[in-house]
Write a structure and sequence with these properties.
- The complex is a heterodimer.
- Chain A is built from 18 helices and four strands.
- By secondary structure, chain A is an all-alpha fold.
- In chain A, about 60% of the residues are buried.
- By secondary structure, chain B is an alpha+beta fold.
- Chain B has four domains: about 280 residues, no CATH class; about 70 residues, Calcium-transporting ATPase, cytoplasmic transduction domain A (Distorted Sandwich), CATH 2.70.150; about 120 residues, HAD superfamily/HAD-like (Rossmann fold, 3-Layer(aba) Sandwich); about 110 residues, Calcium-transporting ATPase, cytoplasmic domain N (3-Layer(aba) Sandwich).
- In chain B, the strands form three sheets. In chain B, strands 1, 2, 3, 4, 5, 6, 7 and 8 form an eight-stranded antiparallel beta sheet that branches. Chain B has a seven-stranded mixed beta sheet with strand order 9-21-20-19-10-17-18, sandwiched between helices. In chain B, strands 11-16-15-14-13-12 form a six-stranded antiparallel beta sheet, sandwiched between helices.
- In chain B, β15 and β16 form a beta hairpin.
- In chain B, α9 packs parallel to α22.
- Chain B starts with 10 loop residues before the first helix and ends with a helix.
- The chains are: A mainly alpha, B alpha+beta.
- At the A-B interface, α14, α15 and α18 of A face α7, α16, α21 and α23 of B.
């Protein structure tokens, strides 16, 4: 048991050790300072030339958002049609079928928004062509989109008063060439050497000990699994994601994938400190997020290591903890750590079946996605946190008797309005979605649909409710993990989560960038003794309180009907 | 509570406030406050449900009594919120009206162009009219003296019993309606239209007719509205959730949950807090022209203060006599006193005072010729009948005089002069028959306690700037001694203006106080311009506040009032939201316990029954509003301990307190309610 926890501590320590220098490097890249990766610049210039981009053209926040949304719209249309016709395209050695329109709609959106909610199984639902040119492609560009939006925010916070926030295309290109590609190359090599397939051949055939002949899916998976984690995407090559022995073969790949999925979110916090030259501010954010993670992580690991009370009641000893749905090569502690990390950041890759986790763990995972900013996804984690900062700044500014200011700019009605709408959006999407499916289940159980609502849930009662709540939470948080046990590949779920995904992605990018842009436009107010500093532990505490209270108030009743009710019935 | 808070809830205001609480139920008025409007709608729904249960006898929605109690409690919640606003308005109005009352029915003696006098009512006076007042008259309107001089008792407005002198021309020509002329006769031109004087504006602000929400109030309303929206979503989606869990939830329970969750505490008190802020300013004898000015005051970064009267007591005073060349000190004092006996400047008087009665009584200047101070000679004095010429004046003026007469200026005196100047004093050299006899030291007397006030301001993050006509050396000394952060020496009116503009360019908010017409541009430029009531009409028009006490240190109080206003809003918002945690723990288990007994685990307060839990939560939610009215009216105490420390303190009291208090409150109420439900 001790070695298991040591493994977790080691993995987290390694992440931090790598994230700090990476943060420094990211800040340098986007400040335009000299770095080792400058050898890429001729290639970047070639891109700009081909695309007809003037890399020196500075954009304001509106132009940035326009560029971001336009290019995302193009990718969405492209991805939808390629998935729809994948059976007619090359690189389909297993002869997989095309996706249905509703599934293609869901899949295209899901990967575009960095969520990777997969209502299909990679082995049968996609071809090597779509895996590479739709899914892997979107995994790169969606991560880069989130990071680029955050860099715009960095630039807005850096200067006293400015409208010039860099060039979106340049930031976006550099995110790919300087950050994502190099990291993915290193990681893919590690994975390939540990047994992850990197081949274009069709299914392999093996004969099991029982003498059955089994087709084993493979493909050029190593590269995709690298960006899936580096870019906090989470969509697996294989259906069962990183619980699959080829996708996550051993403890070395476990450590690699764990470090990879959280390294950029943490590095971005430090990058913020280096970039705007307020290291203390970054440390406080890091502290709040880390405390948040620990609050979710410790009960989860504790519950998983302790094992299931239902089994204990049968008189069965569980020396290895709760092992239902878990891989023996990882064990309960490392799995608990994965569960929490993958839900607080928006990866959503899994190495166990979340459906089988203890109710407390399910509660913590749901909370991780409901908060969605303890580290959070690539770039978007800090954007989400920024919304809470604005609300915290506003309330605490009033509490100390001064018109609220953030980084020397007054926070006024317009900024509060945007922050409030974005903060409101998350519970809105989750609760309305879950309410919709609950309504169908309670009033339209036998509807004459392709998949009858009555067949949606594997489990009745509280657990079934958790499955639905989890699905919409995962969609709104752009997480992508599933509680599973939910029959989700049908029109109702594909379409409803598709809309939740889109809204849950782009509005929380537009909001913070708009606020930062508006603030940067305002007159700079120098700090005085009456100014509330935002780089103190006190302010960190305030932000944490805002996050905790807002999340608790929005979701308490729904959580009470799901995991909390399950917990009290079980213990 | 009543007895100790007599001042907060005066009996004569209670009646009117209670009536107003009902008048304000008008939905057209309520919709301005989205949070309380939601409660009103909820109350209406409960009324319908109660009537339905009464007439149909259907108990699926709970018993008639239970629904009726929920309805009554919700109705009281709305009334309490309205009452908070009404009492704040009534207090503000009463304060303003007591000032106005005096001149309501004052007769005015109007003079037309031909000089004929007609007696009319003050209400008939128009801007530009001229009236006369004599000793014993009450001034019928605000105006400017165009002829004459009078001593006036302004105690009706300032509470200060000592009469003040007002005269035509210059900076002291302005008079306020409602004050009393004690002597002499003046002609006054009316400067404000009836119904437009500062007091009228103030009353209108308080009454809400012209009250506009301040920027912070708007932002907070948005935030509260969005909290309300979140809880609408939470409550509406709870219905399908409950259907899925096969739990019937009564309408009363839904509405109770909703009303408990939305921030009714702050929503109900928000406008009362704003009005109380202006009222507090008025109680400090400051008339504000807008609520925004009070709020801005809390954000001030820089205060411009005149040295004289603000930092130092009036004028310089003599503090020491230094005789030169071994002259007995008593002789020197005698010369000094002789030079000043006929001098009625404050400095001169202070010299006589310092010399003491023992010496001055024996002196006589009968038959002497007074030599007045002129800008050229820069000295004054007296020629005694025996031909002795005594002069006192600035160092270089006396040196020129003595050297011209062929006398040497003693080096000893020169060193003394320099020493005094370096200490922030003003040396006055005294000569007798062009021979230097010694030096009188004049010192600015810094007001007692002013250092502490500046220290307090510094901790608030407000920079103080002293404005003075003194030379930079003296200014620096006084600035250091008084503890101001910066000074403008040898200041001309334009310097103030430039300083304000410079600070504003750097993004700071600046306040200043002024009284003269030449201050008007700077008063208008400053973010908060406080004109003294004794100042000219131009100054009063330019500023956005008028201080009735003419007390320059009032700015400090104004800053605190502004900060208190914001803090009260912030802390009560925090308190209101933090309350929801306990209410959830009361209501959520109550909603589901019938169908999901396991959720008894969430009933950590061990409330008696679902009905009693829900009732306790709504009752707590209602009574917390009147309990917090005193706090809303008085404001949260401001402590200059630095922003972070203040946040910690308030977070602890109102955040943590806001979480803990309702747990205790709801449990206690439940103990009582459980006797019935």
């Amino acid at each position: 048991m001790n070695t298991e926890i040591t493994g977790v501590v080691f993995t987290y320590g390694l992440t931090l050790l790598l994230a700090i220098p990476l943060g420094k490097y990211i800040a340098k890249v986007f400040k335009g300072e000299k770095t080792w990766s400058d050898f890429m610049s001729p290639m970047e210039r070639l891109f700009y030339k081909i695309a007809g981009i003037n890399p020196n053209e500075e954009m304001n926040w509106k132009q940035h958002l326009k560029a971001l949304l336009t290019i995302n719209a193009v990718w969405l249309i492209y991805a939808f049609f390629v998935l729809l016709f994948q059976d007619k395209l090359p690189l389909n050695p297993d002869g997989n079928a095309a996706q249905t329109p509703d599934l293609a709609f869901n899949t295209a959106i899901s990967f575009l928004v960095n969520c990777n909610l997969q209502h299909y199984s990679g082995e049968t639902g996609a071809t090597y062509f779509t895996q590479l040119f739709v899914i892997t492609f979107l995994q790169f560009v969606s991560a880069a989109t989130g990071i680029a939006a955050l860099i715009v925010l960095f630039k807005a916070l850096k200067d006293k008063t400015t409208t010039k926030l860099g060039n979106f295309w340049v930031i976006f290109t550099k995110t790919n060439t300087r950050l994502l590609l190099p990291l993915c190359i290193v990681m893919a090599i590690i994975l390939a050497f540990n047994g992850t397939p990197a081949s274009y051949a069709a299914k392999d055939n093996i004969v099991t000990l029982q003498g059955d002949s089994v087709g084993v899916s493979r493909g050029p998976a190593a590269g995709m699994i690298a960006i899936k984690h580096i870019g906090t995407n989470g969509g697996g090559w294989f259906g069962v994601n990183s619980a699959h022995p080829l996708e996550n073969p051993n403890y070395v790949t476990y450590i690699t994938e764990m470090v990879a999925q959280v390294i950029i979110p943490i590095a971005m916090i430090f990058a913020l400190g280096f970039f705007i030259q307020r290291k203390r501010f970054a440390y406080v954010i890091f502290g709040v997020m880390t405390v948040g993670m620990l609050i979710l992580l410790i009960p989860t690991m504790q519950a998983e290591i302790a094992g299931s009370p239902a089994i204990a009641k049968l008189g069965v000893v569980q020396p290895t903890g709760a092992m239902e749905g878990k891989e023996v090569r990882f064990g309960p502690a490392a799995t608990g750590y994965w569960n929490i990390v993958t839900t607080i950041i928006s990866t959503g890759s899994i190495n166990s079946m979340h459906d089988s986790a203890m109710p407390q763990s399910g509660l913590m995972m749901l909370l991780g996605m409901m908060v969605n900013c303890f580290y959070g996804g690539c770039g978007v984690g800090i954007l989400n946190y920024f919304i809470f900062i604005i609300i915290a700044v506003f309330i605490s500014g009033l509490m100390v008797g001064r018109t609220p200011e953030f980084m020397g700019h007054k926070v006024e009605a317009r900024e509060v309005k945007i922050a409030a709408i974005i903060a409101l959006l998350h519970p809105f999407l989750i609760l309305v979605g879950t309410a919709l499916s609950s309504y169908v289940l309670s009033h339209n159980l036998g509807a004459d649909w392709a998949v009858k609502p009555g067949n949606w849930l594997n489990n009745p009662g509280y657990h079934g409710f958790s499955e639905m709540l989890y699905e919409y939470t995962s969609s709104a948080a752009n997480n992508g993990s599933g509680f599973e046990g939910l029959g989700d590949n049908n029109i109702f779920w594909n379409v409803s989560t598709g809309f939740v995904l889109l809204l849950g992605r782009f509005l929380p990018i537009i909001g913070p960038v708009a606020i930062a842009g508006l603030l940067a436009n305002k007159k700079y107010i120098p700090e005085s003794a009456g100014t509330l500093r935002t780089d103190t532990v006190t302010f960190g505490l305030m932000t944490f309180a805002v996050i905790a209270i807002l999340t608790a108030l929005s979701f308490f009743p729904s959580l009470a009907l799901g995991p909390i009710a399950e917990y009290f019935s079980m213990y | 509570m009543k007895s100790s808070d007599n001042k907060l809830f005066p009996k004569e205001l209670m009646r009117e406030s209670l009536v107003q609480s009902f008048v304000k139920l008008n939905p057209k008025l309520m919709i301005k406050n989205p949070v309380m409007f939601c409660v009103e709608v909820g109350t209406l729904v409960m009324l319908i449900v109660t009537l339905y249960t009464f007439f149909s006898g259907d108990t699926t929605q709970g018993s008639m009594a239970y629904n009726l109690v929920v309805f009554v409690v919700l109705f009281l919640t709305v009334l309490f919120a309205n009452f908070a606003e009404a009492i704040a308005e009534a207090r503000g109005k009463a304060q303003a009206e007591s000032l106005r009352k005096t001149r309501e029915e004052t007769p005015a003696r109007k003079i037309n162009e031909q000089g004929q006098i007609t007696v009319i009512s003050s209400a008939q006076l128009r801007k530009g009219d001229v009236f006369v007042c004599e000793a014993g008259d009450i001034l019928p309107a605000d105006g400017e003296i165009i002829e004459g001089l009078a001593s006036i008792d302004e105690s009706a407005i300032t509470g200060e019993s000592a009469p003040v002198i007002r005269e035509a021309g210059g900076d002291k020509s302005s008079v306020v309606g409602g004050t009393k002329v004690l002597s002499d006769r003046i002609k006054v031109r009316v400067t404000t239209e009836a119904g437009e004087s500062f007091l009228d504006k103030m009353i209108a602000l308080v009454e809400g007719a012209s009250r506009q929400k301040t920027p912070n109030e708007i932002a907070l309303t948005i935030l509260l509205a969005s909290f309300t929206l979140v809880f609408i979503i939470v409550c509406v989606t709870l219905k399908p959730f409950a259907d899925y869990a096969q739990t019937p939830i009564t309408i009363a329970a839904f509405i109770s949950l909703f009303v408990c969750l939305i921030p009714t505490t702050i929503g109900g008190l928000l406008s009362a807090i704003g009005i109380a802020g202006m009222d507090r300013a008025l109680r400090a004898n400051v008339i504000t022209k807008s609520g925004k000015a009070v709020e801005t005051a809390g954000d001030l970064d820089v205060l411009l203060l005149d040295k004289t009267g603000t930092i130092t007591i009036g004028n310089r005073r003599a503090t020491n006599f230094y005789a030169t060349n071994g002259l007995p000190k008593e002789n020197f004092i005698r010369f000094s006193a002789l030079s000043s006996l006929a001098d009625d400047t404050p400095e001169g008087k202070s010299i006589v005072e310092l010399a003491g009665k023992d010496i001055t009584q024996s002196l006589s200047i009968n038959g002497g010729a007074l030599v007045k101070f002129t800008a050229e000679t820069r000295s004054s004095g007296i020629d005694l009948p025996d031909g002795t010429r005594i002069r006192k004046g600035a160092y270089d003026a006396i040196r020129n005089m003595t050297e011209k007469a062929g006398h040497r200026f003693p080096t000893e005196t020169k060193t003394l002069v320099e020493e005094i100047a370096a200490n922030g004093g003003t040396p006055l050299v005294v000569s007798v028959n062009e021979e230097v006899k010694g030096v009188i030291e004049l010192q600015d007397i810094i007001k007692p306690g002013i250092q502490e006030r500046f220290e307090r301001l510094r901790k608030m993050g407000v920079k103080t700037v002293m404005v003075t006509g003194d030379n930079p050396l003296t200014a620096k000394y006084i600035a250091e001694k008084a503890g101001v952060d910066d000074f403008i020496a040898e200041a001309k009116p334009a310097d103030k203006m430039n300083y304000i503009k410079k600070e504003q360019q750097e993004g700071r908010l600046v306040a200043m106080m002024g009284d003269g017409t030449n201050d008007a541009p700077a008063l208008a430029q400053a973010d908060v311009g406080v004109a003294m009531n004794s100042g000219t009409q131009a100054a009063k028009e330019a500023g956005n506040m008028v201080d009735l006490d003419n007390d320059p240190t009032k700015l400090i109080e104004i800053v605190e009032i502004g900060k208190q206003l914001l803090m009260t809003r912030g802390t009560l918002t925090t308190f209101s939201i933090a309350n929801d945690v306990a209410k959830y723990f009361a209501i959520v288990p109550a909603l589901f316990i019938a169908s999901i007994p396991a959720l008894q685990g969430l009933n950590i307060m061990h409330l008696h029954s679902p009905e009693s839990a829900i009732l306790s939560a709504v009752i707590f939610n209602a009574i917390i509003i009147p309990m917090l009215i005193p706090l809303a009216l008085k404001g949260v105490a401001y402590k200059p301990i630095g922003a972070s420390a203040l946040l910690r303190r308030n977070l602890f009291i109102y955040g943590l307190g806001g979480i803990v208090v309702p747990f205790i409150g709801i449990k206690l109420i439940d103990l009582v309610v459980s006797l019935f439900f």
